[in-house]
Amino acid sequence: MVLVAVVLVAVASAFARDVPVSTVAELRAAVQAAQPGDVILLADGTYAFDQGGWALDCAAAGSEAQPIVVRAVNPRQARIELGNAASGSVVEGFHVSGPHWRVEGLDVRGTCADDSACEHAFHVVGGAVGFVLRGNRIVDFNAQLKVNADGDHRLPDGGLVEGNEVFDTRARQTGNPVTKLNIDNASGWVVRDNLLYDFHKVGGVSYGAFHKGGSQDPVFERNLVLCAWHDTGGDTRIGLSFGGGGMGAGLCPPWDGSDCNPETVGGVMRNNIVIQCSDVGIYLNEAQDTRLLHNTLVETTGVDFRFATSTGEAHGNVLSSVIRTRDGASFTGDDNLTGVAAADFAAWYANPLEGDLRLRGDVSALLDRGGATAGVADDFCGRVRTDGRYDWGALEHSLGDCEDGADGSDGSDGSDGSDGSDGSDDVDDGSDDGSDGSDGSDGSDGSDGSDGADGSDGSDTADHATLSGSCGCGAGGATSLSLGLLALACLALARSRRRA
What we know:
This protein is mostly beta strands. β35 (about 350) and β36 (about 355-360) form a beta hairpin.
């Protein structure tokens, strides 16, 4: 049996090949002709696509043992620009319908004059099981990632979104939903170690990431979310959500016209840091059996569990504001630190509103506050929580600052997720069609606290974080990452690279 397995691996390896490309034509040809095991290697440079529709049709089938990989030779030095030449055309970058594709280390930019045209950098549909999006920078789309079932109700289950930097350089002027990572229908997706910031829909609601549409067992872990970092212009911004604004009737399993309720089952959110959202940091909308574990929420309106099917537990979380139940929702857990004042966060950390959570003061209020929490093996930095008394929040402070501690195991086997209703009073539950990529789900505002400001993005197009070397991070320009945030981003990206 072992000999047979060795022979099969050897045969598969014999068909694997590196495919170097340096032009748009070569990239398209390589994608179209891709075989299991291909590694399509993009040379440094700019690859400009200026037509509507799919720039790259990733329909070929990889396998779990021999995925098809699209990778920059030098991380983030291959730049994909997606624009639209024809007025009214809609742009998608990578349309992935084949199984087991991986995209790594690219810099992907939307360059549409009309924000409504640059819809999705990556649209993962139907049979695209096992998709991996790792170590990329993805900028200026309504949804940098959109995932949903296809017309035959096939589900792209088992995806991984890891170590990416995702942001917009300006507020989105569009009637379309604005959600940076929008995952519908599919189950078993893990979203971890990502840096999400400056997402903003003028006059509407935007999300950092959500999972909805009848999904099972989603995991959001170790993500750093800054709703309003450079772009402080206002409107309603929600950090992370299970349920989002909800799916339209009949647009989720069992596809019989019934409501998509619950939106998610068995989700876990753990060790995330969410900062400066005008609305809730975590919104749980019809999210059943969710576990909310050791998250830190700074200057948000808290957590909402909303509607009767939102159930679960919350343990070890640290947040400004409170954990609410609304419209019949319920959760268990009284071992959370709520109502933390801005002055307390400022006393504990170097610059919390900039994402710099290096220690500066006495954090004894957080230390050794509970026993080992089931489903939490590590902290935000990926360090193993070794003693039997866990610190509250995303960081295990007894191990020192992130850059000082060992990196530990990723602890990300799954376990459940928490509950978080939206904190809002007026969710619009905008439904989406779930099938063609328009998610329609910006709608849940969750919000009682949107400031409705002018929508200026406050941001420029500086290069933000760059990747190189083992840590992979450097700074550039006036809007470069703060030192602490840079360190956290480095750790996340370096961990994801080691796991590749």
